[in-house]
Design a protein that fits this description.
Blueprint (H helix, E strand, L loop, with lengths): L3 E4 L6 H8 L3 E4 L14 E4 L9 H8 L1 H12 L3 E4 L17 E3 L8 E9 L12 E8 L5 E6 L5 E8 L2 E6 L7 H7 L8
Parallel strand pairs: 1-2, 1-3, 3-4, 4-10
Antiparallel strand pairs: 5-6, 6-7, 8-9, 9-10
């Protein structure tokens, strides 16, 4: 049984990070989320870029109320749900200088994601880097359930978390591999059925 489940619709390099860390992980297709035969796991990860049109199956699954209920029940029972930057389906208007904003409400989350290049120029426990961490954007208009774990250099939240039942929902715009130490801190709970 894997420690982590990655929700994605094709093979991806992200899985290799878990192998290097000695964490068992498996990729599950969006269609498999309705299966009663999924193994229990501790962490459900949605990688960066899940709202791009080529990953419509991922974003459609996350928008499905039945699947949202399964994910939130998984969290309530002790699982951790880690969702990275959705990025934006459409490019920003360069002439308008308007940053693309994605509401996360359709995914059952009370927050907005603002896509822009931003940095953390300091050591971060999230990545273990000593000089800088690149982020795809930041979060705003978050509900009171979210607390800020990390901010960028401009003071915008780039990694936020909400406790829910026995588990946790985490949103991250960090566009780098998170550290083994950070993942180890997330994998302390029980394996839970989705």
């Amino acid at each position: 049984m894997p420690d982590a489940a990655i929700l994605w619709d094709s093979p991806l390099f992200f899985e290799n990070m878990f192998k290097e860390y000695g964490i068992s992980a498996a990729i599950f297709s969006p269609a498999s989320l309705t299966s009663p035969h999924l193994p229990p796991f501790q962490l459900l990860v949605v990688p960066t870029g899940f709202t791009y049109p080529e990953h419509a199956a991922v974003s459609s699954a996350l928008e499905n109320p039945k699947i949202q209920k399964k994910i939130f029940d998984f969290v309530e029972n002790g699982g951790v749900f880690l969702m990275f930057s959705p990025l934006k389906e459409l490019a920003a208007c360069p002439a308008c200088r308007v940053l693309p904003v994605t509401s996360l409400e359709r995914f059952g989350l009370n927050a907005e994601y603002v896509q822009t290049d931003t940095m953390i120029h300091r050591t971060s426990f999230l990545t273990g880097d000593s000089d800088s961490v690149y982020c795809d954007g930041y979060f705003r208009n978050t509900g009171p359930e979210f607390t800020v774990i990390e901010k960028d250099d401009n003071g915008h939240p780039v990694h936020i978390a909400a406790n829910r039942g026995k588990g946790q929902i985490i949103l991250s715009s960090v566009h780098e591999f998170l550290s083994k130490a950070y993942f180890d801190s997330l994998l302390r709970g029980p394996k839970v059925k989705l």
